[in-house]
Every structure is written in C-alpha cells, then in structure tokens.
Amino acid sequence: MIKKNYFFWGLLLTATLSGMLLMYQLVYSPVLPGSIQSKTIRIPTGTDFKGLLILLEDEKILANTTVFSLLSEKMNFKEGKVKSGQYKIYKGINLIQLIRKLRAGDQEPVNVVLTTERMPENVAAKVSSFIEPDSISLNDVFSSNELIGKDGFTKENFQSLFIPNTYQMYWNTSASAFLNRMKSEYDKFWASNQRLKKAASLALTPQEVYTLASIIEKETQQNIEKKRIAGVYLNRLKIGMPLQADPTAVFARKDFLARRVTDFHTKFDSPYNTYKYTGLPPGPITMSSISSIDAVLNYEKHNYLYFCAVGDESGLHSFANDLSEHNRNARIYRDNLIRRGLR
User: Fold this and answer.
1) Nearest to 160 by CA among 189, 136, 140, 192
2) Dist CA 308 CA 36 (whole Å)
3) Residue boundaries of the structural domains of the chain
4) Whether CATH 3.30.1490.480 fits 25-104
5) pLDDT of 7 over the 70 cut
6) Rounded to whole angstroms, how far apart are CA atoms 195 and 189?
7) What is the pTM of this model?
C-alpha cells in the first residue's frame, strides 16, 4: 500500500514538474526560432485581442495562444489594450517581454522617404508604402485639407507643402496627422537659413519660390547650374518676359514621356504653359528638391536671359545675354545631337 502511494505521488510530482518545465519553456523561451534575428509585425488600427492572437499565430510568433492569453490576462494586457503600430521583435525576446512591448505600444519608427514626386497623388502613393493609411485616404485628406486658403496655400500650389527629405514617424500615423507633420516640417524649413527673408527680398512667397524651383528641378540634374538657371528666370520675371520654360509646357499637356518639346506643347492653352502666359504658373510642376529651392533663394546674379542644352554628354547648358547669341548656342546644340546620332 505504501509502495502504491509512493508510486502515485511520484507520478504526480513528475507530471507537476514536467508541466512546470513546459510552462517555463513556453513563457521564457525566445518567441523567434534561433535562426531568425528579428521580425517586424504590423498591428492595424482597430485590431482587437482576438485579432492580435490570429496575427501573432500567422506570423509564427506564438506557439501556444492559450498560454499567451492567460499570461496577458495576468499582466493586464487584454481586450481594449491592444495598440496598433509597427513592432520589431528581436532575437531572444520571450513571451513576457513580448507582452510588455505590445502593452506599452513600444513601436519601431519608420523612415518616410519623400523624393521629388510629380503630383500630389504620386506623393500619396509613395507615402502609403511607408505608413498605414492607403493612397485613397491620403488623397482625400490632401484634397479637402484645411490648409487651402491659409498661409498662402491654394489648391494649385498645395504641393509646395512637401519638402523632400527623410522623416521618422510611426507606421500607424493617420492621414491627417501626416499632413499636420508636413506642415510643421514646412514651417521649420522656411524658418531656417533665412529662407523667409530671402524669399521676401525677391518679392516672392514661399509657394512661388517653390514653384520656380520645381521648374529648375525639371530643367537640369546638375546642381552646379541651378543657381545660374534660377538667375535667368528671375531676370525674365523682373522685366516681364515670359519664362518660356519647356517643362511647364510638358506639364500643361501632361505629356510626361515627351522626348522633345514641339508646338504641340508650346501652343497649348494652359495657365501652366509659360510660353503662353507671362509670370509663374499657378503652382509647382513637380516636388522640388531642397537644392533647387535654395538655388532660387541664392541665385546667381548675371545678365543672362537665355539658355539651352549643350547637347553633349555633360548634361550642361550654354547661357546667353541676347537672342542672337542664344541662336548660335542652339545651332551648336543641334550639331552635337547630329554628331551623337540623336537627330
């Protein structure tokens, strides 16, 4: 009888210890397999606790949802406590550490990289690849935002809000919060390096500076020429001479694949066509880089009124004070194209 009791209690003790060991392993073992250094998960806005369990199971992070649920309840991480966002799970993190991370909303920030996108809808598409809102949500906010009619913003020049750069923010940033962040970055940008003062000295608003910079952005990829080209356009603006900027005519026609500008572009009636209308177009024709904006604000002072591409492999331009000199440069350009077999 005594032997039977010993056997029973031995089995019970073994089972208890085995259960405790299993529980210990489930709670304190790393949630990621040994070969994986880290894993990024995204918890969408509005996810409930059940949805979180499904997500973690699908991502192969949870081996046992029951243990996770029980432990979460014990640690006061339950329904209503799930925080959306992007989380990076590192090698070695255990179940308790995972719950603490999710409970605290300890997100990993993302880098939103804005480059010189052509149109606001292109900006929306680009941004949606970095944060949670889709391009439709972003476009809706862009088209109905409260900035229009304030601080010099119009529907046409709204794109001047976006300063190409890399911005850190959280993945679950809403569309409206993104727009507010861009306005904050815009204000900081123009308040720095005497940019507002320099714009005022040109009798231009920040939006007008940006619009001119967007033309320069499409005229040249050579930063060393940007200040000189800015000087040409500012000289023309001062004397009321049409800018006659090819990129504006291309933009007016929305013929973005055009290899050469012809009458099809320059004779098209549009306020964006600076062959038809004197002064700046109503708004930017693309996002402008910081280098192009600063080229306008720190333009090169000279008497040039014309420029055309050299036509060689350099990608540079020839500049002229008058039309006859410009025509000579244009002939050199055509000869270079013929020499290169491009005409």
Assistant:
1) 189
2) 56
3) 25-104, 110-191, 195-302
4) yes
5) no
6) 8
7) 0.86
